[in-house]
Amino acid sequence: MPGNLYNNCSNLPATPTRLERLLRERELRKYSKCLNDCEAELPSSTQDCFSPDLETSTCWFNDEELLETVSASRSLNDDGERLDFRTSKQRLLVVANRLPVSAVRHGEDSWQLEMSVGGLVTALLGVKEFDTRWIGWAGVNVPDEIGQKALAKALDEKLMQRCIPVFLDEEVVHQYYNGYCNNILWPLFHYIGLPQEDRLATTRSFQSQFDAYKKANQLFADVVNEHYEEGDVVWCHDYHLMFLPKCLKERNSKMKVGWFLHTPFPSSEIHRMLPSRLELLRSVLAADLVGHFVSACTRILGLEGTPEGVEDQGKLTRIAAFPVGIDSERFIKALELPEVQDHMKVLKQRFAGRKVMLGVDRLDMIKGIPQKILAFEKFLEENPNWCNKVVLLQIAVPTRTDVPEYQKLTSQVHEIVGRINGRFGSLTAVPIHHLDRSLDFHELCALYAVTDVALVTSLRDGMNLVSYEYVACQESKKGVLILSEFAGAAQSLGAGAILVNPWNVTEVASSIGYALNMPADEREKRHHHNFKHVISHTAQEWAATFVSELNVTIVEAQLRTRQIPPPLPIEVAVDRYSCLNNRLLILGFNATLTEPVDTLGRKDSQINEWEPKLRPDLREPLRKLCDDPKTTVLVLSGSARNVLDDNFSDYNLWLAAENGMFLRVTTGDWMTTMPENLSMEWVDSVKNVFEYFTDRTPRSQFEVRETSLIWNYKYSDVEFGRLQARDLLQHLWTGPISNASLDVVQGRRSVEVRSVAVTKGAAIDRILGEIVHNKGMKEPIDYVLCIGHFLTKDEDIYTFFEPELPSEVPASVRPQVPTQVRTSIVGSRAALLMKQNSMSAVEQNKSYAIDGDTLHSMVTDRISLQEGSSVLDLQANDYFSCSVARKRSNSRYRLQSSDEVVTLLRELADHR
Ligand SMILES: O=P(O)(O)OC[C@H]1O[C@H](O[C@H]2O[C@H](CO)[C@@H](O)[C@H](O)[C@H]2O)[C@H](O)[C@@H](O)[C@@H]1O
Ligand SMILES: O=c1ccn([C@@H]2O[C@H](COP(=O)(O)OP(=O)(O)O)[C@@H](O)[C@H]2O)c(=O)[nH]1
């Protein structure tokens, strides 16, 4: 799971194991060697790592362990064993709003450093495999140069140059951190919505807060640039720094940039409320690797989301899932320390004879502290016998205290606690111990270890590491975890915890009773389940996976950017054509054989000419080619049958309409190759959406085909068309197609909806079977030229003829081109089916009158030319796949435009 969508992704791929990652990295290393490009090599920084000079460090921290943690120079070998590497570690720049230490000023040039509180810091403290530098804000305004220099020096000396401060002035902190981050993004990302109160004031200040946000992000970028060394991995964290990837990439496009979100990412319905929604998402997409937020990108930006990631203007941003964890060993080991044992002893004595329940949260509205306390009150109300036998210890760490919402929350919680203690307390004991402060690490471990129940009632939470820490410290006691179903941790610890809806006070109250009375064997089982998870899904694993994925992504991106095929060597293609005897030409129609569309839209007089037309200058060469007995021409298009009929009825060729779902030779009738189980029930509802947008988008149009619907805005104003397309997608996804097995294929100026099974590559097998059979071919096809302006989804047609080659590796880096591309017995994988009932009455009369059984035997018959021989016998040099007017493609070659198609077809037609 990612650091964000914990709450809404259920079927994401499992995180690869360390071994899988390494294997993958090695595989890519091989590729990058093929690329013959030193820069493509995976990083292996040789920076020495320093270990802290504990001898000379005075007690600057209230937690000395921090020093060790921040400066640790350990690593893991392939088997997960710890090694003590001091060299060859990857340099990692961790950029987060918050440094692991916060600074407290003690004089003009004297600073005390304290450990920062929060899950982000905890998780990142577990990151030890790398040579890490932290870049962040020390939580304090330092207006003067003397103070800044002294703080930088203190961090530099005491944390071995590992913490680099970013200085933000008071006004920026106010507008960026208190304002935009914590009053706008934080509540929105946690489904609380934008602030309702002072609405006008907020709207007015929104722009200035957003400006400050961008400015702050730029300041972070400046510090990163100052410290960046070639080969570093830059890992940006959280909602504070959504602009950072863009700032960094603008300055240095080669920088390896990852971005990880620690909060939930809201559904697109929520995110679209944000006035700066597009800018923010686009900036994040400048990163090479981000946490999982595909749906927001596809629905808000209207981008194409794939299992690999999101593609924006040719750049793929890899999206993957990375569940954060803790350094469990650190907690487990701490329990042995004398100071922790001492704390435990004191606590046990203090609460002897009572069950102890624990809450540890920052005092934040997302943590559901009032709800938790009210549920506890209800439990006491309903179970008076427990009144003197149970106590709730609530550690509520003050946080973001300058934000009014947090101030209000503090008063509200104090009021409820006071009321309940007044109501159920006695002279000697109160039911709730509420602490408005943080604890140090040892105190916290002791508390985790001695308490009977932990109560986590977050209304939303990215992960909630407190629940992990509690489990890590409960190996001997086997306490019960009550956990909100709205915390990311519910997905990982749900099996062992008691899951609750924090809004349902009655349910939480009864869960408290259940937990307090749980028999030992059930506690043991539940704990065991969670403990196993916590110790195996650690912060180390999280960071290692993320960084390794980022490295892999970079190499993959380099491979992708090379997928700009070379120009088609027309002379060679013509030469090979002349040498061979059974040639197949597969031609796309739109933007291949048609005239180019004027990007600004056609003249008014032409706007009714929606239908694509064969270029007049192609008529003659096409006719010659079609009439050549050694050549078979197939026009394979997404267009409907009537469109192809209108353009090609006079030629002697094959027509495959609707991406191959319908087929005919021009001397015969249409037949369908449509799989029988293709459901078209969705058509009407999608049609409604398309109609609605066609009405509202001048010069757009939609076409209802038999197997797909397409809305295109190629003659509309491009910008407006794009905006409308985004909105249209939003409507589709939230409505008609939310549960259907459909593909939405976005073209440059179109949106097409079709069944998942329909692609040109999927159809070509059946089509070839039919052609070979119909023509009574005696010799196998020995030359294939396949050219078209095909959508990515349809590019499977190029790879159909060369299955041995991985489609993602461009021709230029293929290790060895096999001499034989494909020898295939076509038709064996898919049957050619007649589906008369999908045609109109007139069409039915025209189509074959064949029953199912006859058809089946036809299909079996046409499996091969003769017993044992194949319909394709293609040598690598005689196969020319070629994209038209597309920059990147899986084809072997490309032509710039349909003008070049004219040149090519003319030369083929006139070959000697
Ligand atoms: O830096 P602060 O404003 O004081 O806030 C503390 C941190 O709160 C958030 O933590 C999140 O990260 C945890 C680890 O991934 C996760 O378990 C938790 O659910 C989140 O709320 C925030 O995202 C951090 O940036 C803050 O530093
Ligand atoms: O007095 C305290 C209370 C809490 N924490 C730490 O604060 C983090 C809280 O992380 P969590 O993911 O639960 O939520 P967040 O506060 O980041 O939203 C945990 O690692 C706690 O150990 C701490 O250091 N001192």
Concise overview:
Helix content is 39%, strand content 16%. It has 912 residues and is of the alpha/beta class. Strands 7-6-3-8-9-10-13-12-11 form a nine-stranded mixed β-sheet. Strands 24-23-22-21-20-29-32-33 form an eight-stranded mixed β-sheet, with helices on both faces. The protein has a six-stranded parallel β-sheet with strand order 16-15-14-17-18-19, sandwiched between helices.
Describe the structure.
GO terms for molecular function: alpha,alpha-trehalose-phosphate synthase (UDP-forming) activity; trehalose-phosphatase activity. One of its GO terms (cellular component) is cytosol. It comes from Gossypium raimondii (Peruvian cotton). One of its GO terms (biological process) is trehalose biosynthetic process. Its EC number is 2.4.1.15. It is a single chain. With 912 residues, the protein is of the alpha/beta class. It has four domains: 91-195 and 204-319, Glycogen Phosphorylase B (Rossmann fold); 328-537, Rossmann fold (3-Layer(aba) Sandwich), CATH 3.40.50; 570-596 and 612-674 and 759-802 and 873-910, HAD superfamily/HAD-like (Rossmann fold); 682-755, Hypothetical Protein Ta0175, Chain: A, domain 2, CATH 3.90.1070. It is built from 30 helices and 33 strands. The strands form seven sheets. A nine-stranded mixed β-sheet has the order 7-6-3-8-9-10-13-12-11. Helix 23 (641-648) links the parallel strand 21 and strand 22. Helix 9 packs across helix 10 and helix 12 (338-350) packs across helix 15 (441-450). It starts with 17 loop residues before the first helix and ends with a helix. It binds ligand L263DTV3 and uridine-5'-diphosphate (UDP). The ligand O=P(O)(O)OC[C@H]1O[C@H](O[C@H]2O[C@H](CO)[C@@H](O)[C@H](O)[C@H]2O)[C@H](O)[C@@H](O)[C@@H]1O binds next to helix 3.
